[in-house]
Input
Amino acid sequence: MAGVKQARDGAVGILTLDEPASLNAMTPDLLGALAAAVGEMTQDEGVRALILTGAGRGFCSGQNLKASEALGEDIAAGVMRFYWPAFRALRECRVPVVVAVNGVAAGGGFSLAMAGDMIVAARSASFIQVFSRIALVPDLGSTWLLPRLIGRQRALELMLLNEPLTAERAQEIGLVRQVVDDDKLMGEALTLAHRLAEGPTRALVATRALVEESEHATYEAQFRREIELQATIRKSPDAVEGRSAFVEKRKARFTGR
Output
């Protein structure tokens, strides 16, 4: 597919933004290809986790200004038409999503990195909001995602001051799960993705949904919602198998067999 490469490593699907000459800058074509690729890859029930990364020296340098005219005169309508489907596909993906950030994640590229579930960053990776530097406000979900990941004050600091964030600092403040040497990025991302792929997919994705719903729910409502989902998920094959394995392991621990 133009703009996005698809590959498989067992139960893990790998999607690579493939416009390295522009550091994978966003265009309607690239984001449309990403949305389609997520859908195509996850139609296969054998895929139980995804990795999103970028080809070349950067993950995503943000909006490709040369392609901005393709959004039309109504920018909001254009973004919702061409960009939102890719972000929604990642946020609502039926499997966990690991983002492997190589090089820069700037502006909308920063937003795209946060749309996954966990970020693994190369040591050379950097993150920058960049918007206020060009007299704009953050977009593509940044003002929703970033404060939830690192807190209000730190999010505002990054958005207002536009200071680049190193991979190590990103890990310190909770944006990034893991920082690895550049040549080990995909290996470590695959290790994490395979670990997630071996887990109870339905329960993992439902947990993601519960965490997001909790932002707008009362304690009592969330208490009830958890049990409602629990009652549904406990009937799934993953849950039945998981409980059986847990019981056997516990029995062996107490009986010595």
Strands lie at 4-9, 12-17, 49-54, 97-101, 104-106, 118-122, 126-128, 165-166, 178-180. The chain has a mean pLDDT of 90. The radius of gyration is 19 Å. Residues 237-255 form the longest helix (19 residues).
